[in-house]
From TrEMBL:
Matching InterPro entries: AAA+_ATPase, ABC_carbohydrate_import_ATPase, ABC_transporter-like_ATP-bd, P-loop_NTPase
UniProt domain ABC transporter: residue ranges: 2-239
Keyword field contains Transmembrane: no
Key words of the record: ATP-binding, Nucleotide-binding
Record GO terms (molecular function): ATP binding; ATP hydrolysis activity
Species: Actinocatenispora sera
Protein name stated in the entry: ABC transporter ATP-binding protein
Top-level division of the source organism's lineage: Bacteria
Length: 261
């Protein structure tokens, strides 16, 4: 569905991204992980159209495309749910779902149709909330997250980007959100990019894990045959150090240990 080829982005003297590749297929969850400052947020913003790339190619369904603003990403079929959710706490669930895309009939808001579609969408996703007319401020953290994700689906996207969807959630609420991610992949066949620091969440739903380190690719792992330790090593750079040490031993240039000095 989506492919990034050699994406680079610079902010002044800071090279935020350097020659980054990423692929997302229909019906799979790709976790994007990395330490703080690894470039995850910048990469997501280039996909979402918030930032423009300096070089590289973005491909959508096999053809090169230009994403210069958020509207371009939306038109292609890319939806992004940011960590702050961008929900209006004083409005009810229906109003939040259709905020900015209200349905009108004869020039007036069609509240009945919007409520019907809201119930239908939430039922399809097996999302349980007390009422679609309850203010969002009254919902739990997990319920708010599912409402934000549900809103992104109204545009019928093909790829959904979720930025830290389980951050600051409890165990039960996290399970609710991860179950929804499973439904996006399995029942709707969407490609999902999951940005997360929680390796347990990554292990629970991700098919592949793409690691960024210092703005560069540092490995893509298939979760079926990868341990969390391998991924953490790629995130921290421990695997790079191990390779360097092996190369040094092979050439005989490894520094002497404390006992050999």
């Amino acid at each position: 569905m989506l492919a990034l080829r050699g994406i680079s982005k610079r902010f002044g003297a800071v090279q935020a991204l350097a020659d980054v590749d990423l692929e997302v297929h229909a019906g799979e969850v790709v976790a994007l992980v990395g330490d703080n400052g690894a470039g995850k947020s910048t990469l997501v913003k280039t996909i979402a159209g918030v930032e423009t790339i300096d070089s590289g190619v973005i491909e959508w369904q096999g053809r090169p495309v230009s994403i210069g603003k958020p509207h371009d990403a939306t038109n292609l079929g890319i939806a992004t749910v940011y960590q702050d959710l961008a929900l209006a706490d004083n409005l009810d669930v229906v109003s939040n779902l259709f905020l900015g895309r209200e349905i009108r009939r004869f020039g007036l808001l069609d509240e009945v149709e919007m409520e019907r579609r809201s119930r239908e969408l939430l039922d399809t996703l097996s999302i349980k909330i007390p009422s679609v007319r309850i203010p969002v401020a009254s919902l739990s953290g997990g319920q708010r997250q599912t409402v934000a994700i549900s809103r992104s689906l109204l545009g019928d996207p093909k790829v959904v980007i979720l930025d830290e969807p389980t951050a600051a959630l409890g165990v039960e609420q996290t399970a609710q959100v991860l179950d929804l991610v499973e439904r996006l992949r399995g029942e709707r066949g969407l490609g999902v990019i999951l940005i997360s620091h929680n390796m347990a969440d990554v292990g629970a739903v991700a098919d592949r894990v793409a690691v960024l380190r210092l703005g560069r690719n540092n490995g893509v792992f298939d979760m079926q045959d990868t341990t969390q330790e391998q991924i953490i090593s790629a995130i921290t750079g421990a695997s790079d150090n191990a390779v360097t040490r092996r190369a040094a031993r092979h050439t005989g240039s490894e520094p002497a240990g404390e006992g050999e000095k």
